């Protein structure tokens, strides 16, 4: 059996779509654990609507302010041999669990792509994963997180070895990345499925903010001494480049320019092109702002 753990907070409408997608799964041997992090809306009523359609459990606790604690509550009561993580604003396509279940004999952590949505009409892109090779922990630290939380299926015995998800509030929104790094220390049996098996909602996403830059740096600081000196420089370069793209997207063009330049330690040619393009776009944006201010 698979235990599907869904942390949620004030997302009743999106939770309904999430649970409807579970009703449509072609693979039926699963339980659903909705862990409510202190919602004030009608989340409980939505869960009640699915009592006759799903093997569903509702757990409520006061607000923690992030998904780690409610996920851990779900882990403690889950009965499945495998754990599936699903955020309450995401959803799966009907064949998600069936396809993933084909790999459970040979792998401990299974993940795949998700289509990115800004509305519920059609996808705007793909949250892409990739095959992780060699030392998986180092691959993640040096090349970034390619495992989307709502795609993951993980063996329960591995969870028992790794322990619970970190509830350190300095790691909110990167606690899943932290967990994959910790999992990589006990197993290398990761399986990437090169296929979109669900929808990823990119609306009110706490992973896209200035605070997220600080959180990713906190995560890097946690593991950086486990890398060689050269690897540390490469990991810091990736952090600066990722920060630049976040600053750029949020309109902090001066900060983005600095971070783009700092992201140029031994870059690939594709990153050089992206850095140059991003830097020039920031310069143009700053010039436009100054021209508008002078009018």
TrEMBL record:
Transmembrane segments: none annotated. InterPro entries: Glyco_trans_2-like, Nucleotide-diphossugar_trans. Residues 3-157 form the Glycosyltransferase 2-like domain. Coiled coil: none annotated. This is Glycosyltransferase family 2 protein. It comes from Pedobacter lithocola.
């Amino acid at each position: 059996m698979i235990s599907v753990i869904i942390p949620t907070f004030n997302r009743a409408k999106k939770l309904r779509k999430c649970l409807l997608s579970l009703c449509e799964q072609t693979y039926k041997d699963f339980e659903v654990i909705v862990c409510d992090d202190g919602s004030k809306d009608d989340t409980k009523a939505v869960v009640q609507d699915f009592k006759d359609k799903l093997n569903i459990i509702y757990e409520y606790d006061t607000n923690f302010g992030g998904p780690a604690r409610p996920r851990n509550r779900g882990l403690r009561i889950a009965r499945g041999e495998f754990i599936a993580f699903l955020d309450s604003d995401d959803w799966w396509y009907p064949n998600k669990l069936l396809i993933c279940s084909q790999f459970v004999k040979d792998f401990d952590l299974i993940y795949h792509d998700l289509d990115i949505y800004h509305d519920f009409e059609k996808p705007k892109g793909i949250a892409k994963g990739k095959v992780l090779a060699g030392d998986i922990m180092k691959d993640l630290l040096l090349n970034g997180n390619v495992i989307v939380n709502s795609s993951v299926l993980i063996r329960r015995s591995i969870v028992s070895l790794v322990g619970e998800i970190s509830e350190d509030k300095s790691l909110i929104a990167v606690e899943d990345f932290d967990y994959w790094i910790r999992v990589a220390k006990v197993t290398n049996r990761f399986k990437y499925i090169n296929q979109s098996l669900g929808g990823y909602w990119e609306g009110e996403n706490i992973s896209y903010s200035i605070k997220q830059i600080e959180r990713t740096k906190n995560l890097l600081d946690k593991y950086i001494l486990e890398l060689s000196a050269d690897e540390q420089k490469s990991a810091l370069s990736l952090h600066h480049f990722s920060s630049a793209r976040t600053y750029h997207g949020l309109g902090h063009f001066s900060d983005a320019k600095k971070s783009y330049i700092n992201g140029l330690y031994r870059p690939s040619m594709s990153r050089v092109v992206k850095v140059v393009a991003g830097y020039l776009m920031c310069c143009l944006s700053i010039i436009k702002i100054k021209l508008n201010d002078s009018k």
